[in-house]
Hints:
In chain A, 37% of the residues lie in helices and 4% in strands. With 93 residues, chain A is mainly α. The radius of gyration of chain A is 23 Å and the shape is flat.
Amino acid sequence: MDKKTVATIAYLSRLSLNEKNEDKITDDLENIIKFVDQLNAAETDNIEPLASPLEKTAKTRPDKITAENRKEIFLERSPKSNEDYFLVPRVVE
Amino acid sequence: MSIQFKTIKQLGKMLNNKEISHVELIQETFSLIKKNNHLNAFVTLNEQESLKKAEILDKSPSSSSLAGIPIAQKDLFCTKDLRTTCGSNMLSNFIPPYSATVIENLENAGCISVGKTNMDEFAMGSSNETSFYGNVQNPWGLNLVPGGSSGGSAAAVAAGIVPAASGTDTGGSIRQPASLCGITGLKPTYGRISRWGMIAFASSLDQAGPMARTAEDCALLLNEMCSHDEKDTTSLDEKIPDFTKNINSSIEGLKIGLVKEFDLSKLDTDVVKVFEESKKHYESLGAKFVEVSLPNISLSVPTYYVVAPAECSSNLSRFDGVKFGKRCENPKDLEELYIKTRSEGFGDEVKRRILIGSYVLSAGFYDAYYKKAQQVRRLIKNDFDSAFKNVDVIMSPTTRGAAFEAGSKGDDPIQMYLEDLFTIPANLAGLPAMSIPNGMIEKKPIGLQLIGNFLDESTLLRAAHNYQITTDWHLKTPEVMS
Amino acid sequence: MSWETVIGLEIHVQLSTSSKLFSGGSTAFGAEPNTHVDLIDLGLPGVLPVANRGAFHKAIRFGLATNSIINQTSTFDRKNYFYPDLPKGYQITQMALPIVGKGFIKIEVDGQEKIINITRAHLEEDAGKSIHDLFDGETGVDLNRAGTPLLEIVSEPEISNAKEAVAYFKAIRQIVTFLDICDGNMAQGSMRCDVNVSVKKSGETKLGTRAEIKNINSFKFIEKAINYEIDRQIKILESGDSVVQETRLYDSIKNETRSMRSKEEANDYRYFPCPDLLPVVISDDELKEIRDNLPELPDEKEKRYVEESKLDYSEAKIIASSKTMANMFEEACAKTKDSKLIANWLVGDISALLNKDNIDLEESKLTSNNFAMLIERISDKTISGKIAKSVLEEVWETGDDVDKIIESKGLVQIQDESLLETIAQNIIDNNPSQVEAYRGGKDKLFGFFVGQVMKETQGKANPQSVNEILKKLLS
């Protein structure tokens, strides 16, 4: 778990590490990964990964409009918006 | 007549016999809350609304067994127009525009949600030491942790402030605090209770459940909490039984499994002693003990610490300062908006788990970690399926010991993770499990865990209830403000 | 040095369901911002997705029409990245097991047929829209589109040039509109395309490094973008440098592609199965029902028009190539059985008007109803063919009702034989020298008399009646 890997993952997760916590977090991550490396001992050839503890298939919904317009309350309770849009700092493509 | 430490059943009787009015009940509840402020069990109180509901019930009484019963709701459930923080700074100003299905179910049954309880941030923790809103105090001793992540709910019930609280359990977050606080807590089969409105931590592991003073009360609550919800396609549509029915039936011949691989000799002698006593007691009630083998069980904790962080790293991506929750001050660009908002909004444990999660899902590591963990998860589930061919329930201690001091687990996260050694397997397999008080160690309570087969909460409740009508561990109460 | 181009297209088709892929929010285009946003679309904490079965049915139609494998059990995965119009911070898509597997379609370029294989087609949710230019220093986010179902159709890298790419895109558009799974409205963004382009030396088996040009939504731009990119890559390779694998955007004003900000490359999407969605299973019965009710595709329509409506092959091909025109043809035929007449108008006057204005039929003001009415009025002789042409032009400009136009302009054809006889007789009486000349053998003068009657009746006289009457009176 080198500094570069930690920096990449931190960026992917949009989290910043500063000099104060960078070392501790790197250590913690290293220890946790070492801890979970125990899994390598398990014999898992041909074992189907378990995505959900339920052995069932999805229920779906019919194609119908059921939502109401809740624009006002959504925008009102957002961190920054005008009367029509959520606002973020200008994005340059 | 004091309401403190009363069960739902007892309070129901008091209300029916008009020994106390609904309004008086709620007023006394809030008085208890305030007197016990130092426990820091609550984040947000709902006094006005609660009194209004009580007034209505006094005018037009309801015959429901839960009518007017005060309940504390873990702050992980969205409550319409009432602040919901998930123990985090990120949601310190979040007012949901809707309520969780389980909240609606309980309120429709007549429960009055008196407030939102403190918890480990985003349900990540086993001691309620990671909340942005401060630690929760275990009512059983100064500076003791109540367990986590449902620490606030456990403390509120243990202190007798409310007869019941809702909790959630992803790796033991109902059972472990129940054990450390001396109360009864149940995590049902995965899918029994709708996850609509439950702020997601690890979607394939999270389940809501009741925390109360008795198994009987848990059964009453479970009846109302469970529902098939079209809005949650992982919610079961199996018929929901009346969980209070047959709770009194005998457990003569009940086959109880003891897990070979849970090497109890490694635990403190006190803990082993308490466990052995419980064993003897069950034998006296007619139960038979059988050894079962769950060969992959020792890999439960590492499996959990791959799967849960992976899912949470994705579930928590929605907290970006754009649509709800906190935003950092004056971000100069989009990158700063994301990075600063999230770094300021999340605590260290949450950040650790997000980072681990991103790591195990990242290109090059997916097969070695995430896929591998999901395969081991299937092995663990298969082990349980085999074991349950020969036994009705599996029994173990809930925790390695009684409540520990805040700050005593030091800086090593793994030490904290090992607290969930006994509880995690049931989440991985999606099985129902509960914890009931079964002893005291140095004046601190400790719990007994029962794990049931898929959909078999009824057997768990019957085994727990039979124990409770013949013992008094669950009747012990801490010294708190009254 | 001779170069070969290898192109693959990823086409995003917005499925024409009423509601979104995972919520009951409306997918209707053009609404006020943030008014079609459900709790689920907003990605609020605690919400959960529920899959729209209608979206699956539409995806399956596509698979059936393209000879594809249908995966009756399919699953959903999460694609994780941060962007303001992606509310959850991940997109729900189908990576591991998509609803539609391998298939193929035929395209035609310069008379040559070619088969293009399809790798897969999967369901995924669309993101919202980021509006960059309206607010000073800020970007506005509209989540109306967030959650709209998309079918992402991925071709094998078997397309060799820009013309083939356009033909393939057009063919896919034709299929999805005929199947009624997408309205094909490029201007509204109903279909968008990402193009992967690489070049290699002729005969070389190893593929060159490819660049991806994102989000093109017009046929013209696809062709231009590809041609620019091919030139760009060849220039790079000829100078000895290597092509960088990257994402590029097409600038239609400058007619060039340029590199997107490189952060895209740092994106590891960390795909994993979505734990909130269990596998979706389509039963054999369901599949059969979809198959049995599959809308007719152009080939089938062409055949049917030739066999049943007795159209020429060339007429049938033109009419069958556009869903709107095919509908118009079929609706008019249901009301007026004269399929030849209907075909003539579509292939003739109407096609000419479309060419003149450079628009598609669905962009015109001509509705199916109105067209059918026009044909009916010709058929029942209310108006003559010539008058009909002017009515059509009026309709084309204004979109007004055919009957209203006929009435307000008094264009009803004069059929009254006795009235026409009177008028004709008048003209004959007033033009004795022409009558004599005609009767003397100048046959061409017949046209003069016809013209005079028409002038007298402002063109409204029934031409056949006029001919018959004049023949009778002049003999």
